[in-house]
Amino acid sequence: MRALTGLSQWFDRRGWRDLIIGLPYVWLLVLFLLPFLIVLAMSLATRTPTAPPFGYGGDNPLLNFEGYARLFTDDLYIRSFLTSLMNAGVATLFCLALGYPMALGLTRISAGWRGILLMLVILPFWTSFLLRVYAWMGLMGRNSWFNGLLTDLWNWVTPEAWALGHIPMMQTNFAVVLVMVYTYLPFMILPLYANLERLDRALDEAAMDLGSRPFRVFVDVTLPQSVPGIIAGGLLVFIPAAGELVIPTLVGDAGMPMIGRVISDEFASARDWPMASSVAVVLLILMVGPTILYSRFNARAEGSGPLEAQK
Amino acid sequence: MRRRPVFLITMLCFGFAFFYIPILSMIVYSFNGSRLATVWGGFSTRWYVSLWDNRQVWAAMVLSIKIALVSATGATILGTMAGIALARFRKFRGRTLFSAMVTAPLVMPEVITGIATLMLFILMAQWVGWPAQRGFTTVTLAHITFSMVFVTTVVQSRLSSADRAIEEAAMDLGSRPWQVLRDVTLPVISPAILSGWLLAFTISLDDVVITSFTTGPGATTLPLLIWSKVKLGVTPDINALATLIVVVVGIGVALAGWILRRAEKRRDLDARMAFRSGT
Fold first, then answer.
1. Chain B closest CA to A200's CA: distance in Å?
2. How many domains does chain A have?
3. In a domain, A237, yes or no
4. By the CB < 8 Å criterion, does B197 face chain A?
5. Which CATH number covers residue A148?
6. What is the pLDDT of residue A240?
7. Which residues of A fall within a CB distance of 8 Å from B151?
8. Which of A58, B35, B40, B242 lies at a C-alpha separation of 20 to 30 Å from B149?
9. pLDDT band, residue B278 (cuts 50/70/90)
């Protein structure tokens, strides 16, 4: 009984606070930070034919930098890093080119339509990511109506010597970029919309009254004010796209893999845990810069966080 | 006089066509009678019938829903706690590390989270003998971890925009701090907690990459089943399954959004009425 009163006093005084902080803290320490530290340690271990397939100390060197050395000498890794950066970069640019006018358009239509269309932007988010990739596999295949339409168009436009039976779209970097634009476009539209919606339209009107043409108003007034939104949205597309695994596995070119696929293959197929970990560590280091940049600009884009983009 | 933004509206039309044509095409082809997934062979519902009889699909769906229910609930409890800690407790030891651990999973590539968590489970099995095999429990633990931070972000942003005057009033009237939390703060943020739960539920239901690394033999979730089939190409029965998922989830989400918005509106109205009758 005494113990129970003591416990309830403790809870009342500071226990409730300690529990609220402590439980999620310990959870994240064990299931997020610890695995991350294991990756870090694993990247310096040596691959051995044991189970689990690594050695550390003993007969093996304590710190083995061979994995990192191979990253810079074997051009498979350099090429796949470059492929990832290029695919993610091109996808980000296309998302911007399509998402910016869409976000601006959303601010210029009636409130009723806006509600419905915003809902339609967000809806695909909640449905399966995998199935959105799959939907494009159906369109890009060689016998599909979409591929047939594009093939007819191609054969009609180009000279007869270039005629094609079908357009090879699957298993190319083109397919990867297309599907990335498709799946990540809402990440671009939502922060941009949140940013553009808050702009003061009176500035536009002032510029109009002073004789600017609509396009100049856009370039001189709207565009500069939306830079934080552009950067936040761009990084929200670029960061996940660069580490993507599902899209390159399903529609990508196996001969030019992206880095996510290299990590997965090293780990699962080659069973080279230290090498997979080295690649993972370098990928994370490359991501740190964009992430810090993102959190800085996201604050400036005024409350258009990843969460609002997720919902 | 304001001109109609013709270019912007054209881009909106194009964008929405881009969003929805692939999905519509998939829905249409799920009623394709032909065995070839991309060649039209007349209207038929045979793929839905064969789906209904497919025990593997049912088992995978039940497992996915179980995992999503448990992990969304766990993620909501832990994520809400973390959100309250970060938004309401200004100073505590290790706060910087804590907020870093809450932000980092949001941008961590899934492959890395996947292999890191798998290595943890394998090493733990070797050192402490648990988990002896991977399956429901390991997948659920991994799902809780990566979806709780989304709940935290939702709750935290809601708390930082909430009016603190009510909490202060309750304090002034002599409530103890944790009573304020229980009786005032939690009810105020309950819509955020609910949408955090929904978010965690759908994230868990949708996950492929982290699940594929942390699961074991015999524990195949629905996305994993689809993943293993889709890797081999487009098939009509997956079209039917995809259509069902998209339609059910779409309707569910639209309904949930509508209900949440109505609840929020009513709450705002109540608050305004209370304020008016108070002055």
1. 16
2. 1
3. yes
4. no
5. 1.10.3720.10
6. 92
7. none
8. B242
9. low
- Residue A56 inside a domain? The answer is no
Share of chain B above pLDDT 90, in %: 51
The mean predicted confidence, pLDDT, of chain B is 89
Structure tokens at A176: 């990867």
Domain map of chain B by residue range? 55-232
Which tokens sit at A235? Answer: 């990084």
Residue A96 tokens, joined: 């911007």
Structure tokens of B184? 């005032």
The per-residue pLDDT for range A248-307, each reduced to its tens digit, is: 999 999 888 999 999 999 999 889 999 999 999 999 999 888 888 887 777 666 544 333
CATH architecture of the domain with range B55-232: Orthogonal Bundle (1.10)
How far off is chain B from A304, nearest CA to CA, in Å?
10
Per-residue pLDDT tens for B191-247?
899 989 989 998 999 999 999 999 988 899 999 999 999 988 788 888 899 999 888
Give B-chain residues touching A239 at CB under 8 angstroms: 107
B195: closest chain A residue by CA: A311
Q: What is the ipTM of this complex?
A: 0.89
Query: Structure tokens of B214?
Result: 């942390």
- Residue A18 in any domain: the answer is no
Q: Does B209 touch chain A (CB under 8 A)?
A: yes
Looking at chain B from residue 76 to 95, which residues have their Cβ under 8 Å from any Cβ of chain A?
Answer: 78-79, 81-82, 84-85, 89, 92, 94
Kindly list the distances between the CA atom of residue B43 and the CA atoms of A40, B53, B248, in Å, as whole numbers in the listed order. 55, 20, 22
* Nearest CA distance, B278 vs chain A (angstrom): 32
Which of A28, A127, A141 comes nearest B246 by C-beta?
A: A127
State which residues form the domain around A224: 74-310
pLDDT at B2: 55
Mind giving me the DSSP string for chain B?
-----HHHHHHHHHHHHHHHHHHHHHHHHTTB-SSSTTS---B--HHHHHHHT-HHHHHHHHHHHHHHHHHHHHHHHHHHHHHHHHHH----TTHHHHHHHHHHHHHS-HHHHHHHHHHHHHHHHHHH---SS-SHHHHHHHHHHHHHHHHHHHHHHHHHHS-THHHHHHHHTT--HHHHIIIIIHHHTHHHHHHHHHHHHHHHHH--HHHHHH--TT---HHHHHHHHHTT---HHHHHHHHHHHHHHHHHHHHHHHHHHHHHHHHHHHHHHHHHHH-
Q: Are A77 and A195 in contact (CB under 8 A)?
A: no
CA angle, residues B127, B133, B135, in degrees to nearest 5:
130
Rounded to an integer, what distance in angstroms lies between the CA atom of residue B97 and that of residue B174? 34
Evaluate whether A199 touches A222 at the Cβ level (below 8 Å). yes
**Token pair for B40:** 């039209």
CA B99/CA B195 separation, integer angstroms = 21
Q: CB within 8 A of B173, min separation 6: which ones? A: none
